[in-house]
Amino acid sequence: MLNKKRIGRLIPYPVIEGGRKVLNAGPRRCVVCGAAIRRFTDTGYGFKVLERLQVVGGMRRMADQCPICHSSCRERLIWFWLTNGGGRFRFPASVRIAHFAPEKGLTYRLKQAAPGGYRAYDFEPARYRHLSGVRQIDLSALKIESDSVDLLVCNHVLEHVPDVELALSEIIRVLAPGGSAILQVPIALKMKDKIELPLDSTAEQRIDLLGQDDHLRLFSEEAYLAVLRSAGLDVTLFDPFEFDDQRATDWMLDPLELLHVCRKPV
Fold first, then answer.
1. Order of strands across the sheet that contains 259-263
2. Strand partners, 37
């Protein structure tokens, strides 16, 4: 007998998405995909360590996620910076974008902004139904030409990789001089350094110490900035509420989350 997941695979994805839009239609609007929706859904995990260490990007947030494009406050923050924030990123026809673990809502927007220069990558491309042509890649050994990417988006990935320093060296290599990289990770506000577990750690250990069974590390803000800067990146922290408090509130951004805007020195 076919299970629910297998039946879903037989239905073309545009049909599924169209059905979701009908079922979730309402007066509110997602600032990422533009869908008119009735309500946002909850995000985050309920593990005690996330609340105890106040992990931004892991704690529960009520009414946070769009039911159509699945974007939450962390995707909205990136799109805010690109379009409204201090970055006001320009998307010339020649722009080259590399998007790792491509989030659905951001995928739509970035592809629209750079239809000829957008490339999506993941370690397991088969996971994606909303996007064809996702290229299989290992973040620690990128098959991308050096100095060839103007904007690199790698949101909540570096906490998973076996060797974060090696992954960052590859990111810096492929970035064009002056190119920007958005490299968000969960940040523990009530921790002074970082926790790093070995590859042979168990799922239970990772949940207990890091708050997710496939994470290998958890950073404090200071520790993460030190890792990024020691890799050779110029890093600035963008606070959307400091930039435009009313707009950041309207966009339902997380007041605890800062955007790590990284650039490769010219």
1. 135-136, 118-122, 97-100, 149-154, 175-182, 259-263, 234-238
2. 28
Q: How far apart are CA 202 and CA 210, in angstroms?
A: 12
Task: Say how many C-beta atoms besides its own lie within 10 A of residue 1's C-beta.
Answer: 4
Structure tokens at 195: 């926790």
Distance (Å) of CA 259 to CA 11, 129, 147: 37, 28, 23
**pLDDT tens column, 89-122:** 677 888 999 999 999 999 999 999 898 999 999 9
Which residue, among 150, 149, 151, 154, has the nearest Cα to 138 in the 3D structure?
154
Rounded to two decimals, what is the model's pTM?
0.91
Structure tokens at 226: 């030190």
3-state helix, strand, coil in the chain (%, to 5): 30, 20, 45
Phi, psi of 190 (to 5 degrees): -105, 40
- Give me the pLDDT at residue 13, please: 67
